[in-house]
Design a protein that fits this description.
Radius of gyration: 14 Å
Helix content: 25-40%
Number of strands: 4
Mean pLDDT: 90
Strand order of the largest sheet: 2-1-3-4
Distance between the termini: 14 Å
Structural class: alpha/beta
Shape: globular
Number of helices: 4
Low-confidence stretches: none
Strand content: 5-15%
Length: about 140
């Protein structure tokens, strides 16, 4: 059996986009990726709308947490993917220095100020974009 690639999704607060990436990678591409998410300054909890819209899509939302990227220093990661512009511009920890990195800038759907339908569409758009990028990454690594 082929080893799954270990990837870490990073966003500053690890409340929304990075968590969405982790869940989508593990549920829709879990035979290829083993994904985690973290932040440089974790908020301590996953955004409630992240949990709501994961569940709305039939994706698991239980047990998710906002955690520090330092928690993954010994994980042996194959790839780090930043999903917010501020995280992409931060100085990464030394342990991450040799790990290949990609930046997939995604808008923060939790900051959308609109109707419930507009917020839902913003979350689903980011989820779809992450799924498409993961499918493309998977194809390029196969």
């Amino acid at each position: 059996m082929k080893k799954r690639s270990k990837i870490l999704f990073v966003c500053t607060h690890n409340r929304c986009r990075s968590v969405l990436g982790e869940v989508i990678a593990n549920t829709k591409h879990g035979d290829f990726f083993q994904a985690y998410s973290a932040g440089s300054a974790p908020a301590g909890q996953v955004h409630p709308l992240t949990l709501r819209y994961l569940e709305a899509r039939g994706l698991p939302a239980e047990g998710l947490q906002s955690q520090s990227w330092d928690d993954f220093a010994d994980e042996g990661l194959d790839l780090v993917i930043t999903v917010c512009d501020s995280a992409a511009n931060e100085i990464c920890p030394l342990w991450m220095g040799d790990t290949p990195q990609l930046h997939w800038g995604m808008p923060d759907p939790s900051r959308v100020d609109g109707t419930e339908q507009e917020v839902k569409e913003a979350f689903f758009d980011v989820m779809d974009a992450l799924d498409a990028k993961l499918a493309g990454l998977r194809a390029s690594l196969s």
